[in-house]
């Protein structure tokens, strides 16, 4: 069996051949372009698959997704925002392969469950805190897709006190407070002069009051969203990854304090919030698990 794993995000795309152990091999990475996204994607797949007879393809994509039709409409990929038939395009590209499409947050949860911080835990909520805020669920040891494929999309839980317009069209989503770009914008409005989430984290660690306040604000909102989601789906392990999640104690301390303040139901005793272990390949790893678990076409 030869399988491919593909992870498509708003900033970059990665792909790899999947090893016999279910893990992706050495990955190739390219920036996600503003136009001709599918061409860049298909070129990447061809480069990874050269010389291989591909039988299965597992795809993780920024959401929303539709796991039934295989279409995607990611709000952080403008060319595809109104919908793109990703599953159909991949099936045409590899007509003899079985293709599975899932939301990136769900794949991140699946990867951590199989190989990372959630090994041995069958019920877990995963967050990816980066350019946006993604999420996914594994319940009973299985990835949860929901009616359309978007279960666990925690970035669009509304948090108290926020009315900031979100790219989804709603108001007050946790993504408008706690994603890297949203936090940077808010800090700049308070007079901070940096330009990236990494700079914001360094400023906070160096004692900059505005940066500390910004990360406190972001962490409190994330803790509120986590407590709400954990109560809704009955999990006691939350795994957080993504670039902005590397901001350290100025972000993590308020996350945990806020979640503890709000997660007061008895069945949430012992709620753990831990860093992801798989880093930047976590979502690709989940896509690899999808690829190796999907049925081979015609068999």
Automatic annotation (TrEMBL):
Pfam families: ROK (PF00480). It comes from the Bacteria. Belongs to the ROK (NagC/XylR) family. GO terms for molecular function: kinase activity. Keywords: Kinase, Transferase. It comes from Rhodococcoides kyotonense. Signal peptide: none annotated. The keyword Glycoprotein does not apply. PROSITE patterns: ROK. The keyword Transferase applies. This is Glucokinase. InterPro entries: ATPase_NBD, ROK, ROK_cs.
